Amino acid sequence: VNIEKVSITTSSGFTQEITNQVVGLQIFEDLFSPFITGSLVIKDSLDLLNLFPFSGEEFLQLRVSTPTLKGSKIDGNFYIFKMADREIVGDRSVVYELHFITQEAVIDLNKRISKAYSGRCSEIAKTLMEDKEFGLQLKRKIFIEETKNSTKYTSNFWSPVKNLLYLTEAAINVDNSPSYTLFENHEFV
Fold first, then answer.
1. Which residue from 24, 78, 152, 170 has the highest number of Cβ atoms inside 10 Å of its Cβ?
2. Residue 121 near residue 73 (C-beta atoms within 8 A)
3. pTM of the model as a whole
4. Is the pLDDT reported for residue 101 higher than 50?
């Protein structure tokens, strides 16, 4: 795996490149999770903890590729939500783990929709993914399999993801199969 770029940006706009301090990287793409998550293990001898107080408002820019796999590049911005396992390993070195998740998870946490929806399940899902006011505001490539059925429901202060999960349960494809799922990977949402 080539770790091409890892940088952290604070809420005040200060950015620090930390690619050389990365000891380990884990990225999780789960078929049953709507968001990509991951963790970085950092060996810090630059005293980043004083530069970044890690208050929960930092963003991670990550660019990773696997040379032997075509189309395996991950290039995106993530939200750092947790620092764990901090351990002093030397006179001036600290090792800790930063946990991150895609930015859409934060958008989902902060939106509650009270609105009636009607139409084909796939069209409602596309609206919920792209809409700036009520949706996840996705700008990446989205794959939505067409549905043959329509639905009519009222979102009772549900988050965008809860609405999308409801639609996956109600949707039926052209082969009469009700086997939809909502997940995010490095290529598609």
1. 78
2. no
3. 0.81
4. yes
